[in-house]
Amino acid sequence: MLYKRSSQLFADAEKVIPGGVNSPVRAFKGVGGTPIFVKSAKGAYLYDEDANQLIDYINSWGPMILGHAFQPVIDAITERAKLGTSFGMPTELETKIAELTVSMVPNIDKIRFVNSGTEACMSAIRLARGFTGRDKIIKFAGCYHGHSDSFLIQAGSGLSTFGTPNSPGVTQGTAKDTLLANYNDIENVKALFEANKNEIAAIIIEPVAGNMGCIPPVKGFLEDLRQVCSDNNTLLIFDEVMTGFRLAKGGAQELYNIQADIVCFGKVIGGGLPVGAFAAKNEIMNYLAPIGPVYQAGTLSGNPLAMAAGLAMLEALNQDTEIFKRLDEKTAYLENGIRKVLSNNNVEFTVNRVGSMISVHFDKGAVVDFKTAKNGDNETFKKFFHGLLNQGVYIAPSAYETWFITDALTYQDLDYTIDAIDKVSKEL
Ligand SMILES: *Cc1c(COP(=O)(O)O)cnc(C)c1O
């Protein structure tokens, strides 16, 4: 495949945009080579600036669960745009999407819309702190909750040591309020509670981790977290930016039958436009301004184009009673195919999957947390990535990402992909 025009466009971009990209993972730093510039996309396919067609396994990192340029979403945006694109005043559309969300997701009474998953998680934490009157939060190593200061913290040396910032610009003052725990390790969490009695406002977690590959919660882990939170008057925040409207209509809360206190959304909820949201029961949501003391705002929050896109997407998911089953079946088919060809070619691997989230790790040990996720062989991943790309299959350009399966994929696309993986794995 040729990337002549993409290479030129990347060189042009690098002159005026740091690293040539507006979000770091797009820059191919993890895999080397030139990022591909997209011209258009439809259904399961991307078309790049060099006229290559690619089967897309990222789907805008999740939102395109029903395929690119999904007609009801395109129509909704187009019609809405003719009526004006932003007012900074309430619209009926905001109530409509809020009503639909509240009806689809268990355990929430009210929802507030923002512009990204980052904003949703950042605001959820502020709300939890305001509600509980406590400062500290627990996050899990390897979980991503957007790029706000409190979340850019990596593991310190010991169990109960305070986190150290892993980006310059995050102050020690902020970092000290973020405690780190290992995913799937309830004893670790309990030790943090022991060492920080009555100080922990919230635990925030990806109920299925998706930002260190896909890592399912081990049996009982989410239940235990729920219990620890209830015992300590700490709020449990499910960051469902990735899992919401993907694993089930009601997200991971529904799938695992666990009630979180605050739920964060992004990605699918915006149908491909910039939308995030956070939601909870009345008791908690009424703590927000203008009726409560916790301030949170946004000039473009609830933007009519974004709400129209999100509403069209959620309506489509809500009406299609088979959608999550179909996605699960397609992804299971892909999983089985991958397992078969990698085994046949004697590649050491682990595949993790929950519903339409799947990841391939080049290590034969179980991948259950950030530490084990890091065991994967990155050189093998690079070859795997570029080998697939050369055959027109686009997966995320990083070994730490989940693949997002879209319903637009046909079984023919999946067979083509499995065949491409077979070819690549002979060279690994
Ligand atoms: C993508 C993601 C975010 C951040 O959302 P943005 O819209 O990129 O700010 C937060 N949490 C999780 C779990 C995510 O996957």
UniProtKB/TrEMBL annotation:
Its main location: cytoplasm. It catalyses: (S)-4-amino-5-oxopentanoate = 5-aminolevulinate. SUPFAM superfamilies: PLP-dependent transferases. Keywords: Cytoplasm, Isomerase, Porphyrin biosynthesis, Pyridoxal phosphate. Pathway: Porphyrin-containing compound metabolism; protoporphyrin-IX biosynthesis; 5-aminolevulinate from L-glutamyl-tRNA(Glu): step 2/2. CDD domains: OAT_like (cd00610). Belongs to the class-III pyridoxal-phosphate-dependent aminotransferase family. HemL subfamily. This is Glutamate-1-semialdehyde 2,1-aminomutase. The lineage of its organism: Bacteria, Pseudomonadati, Bacteroidota, Flavobacteriia, Flavobacteriales.
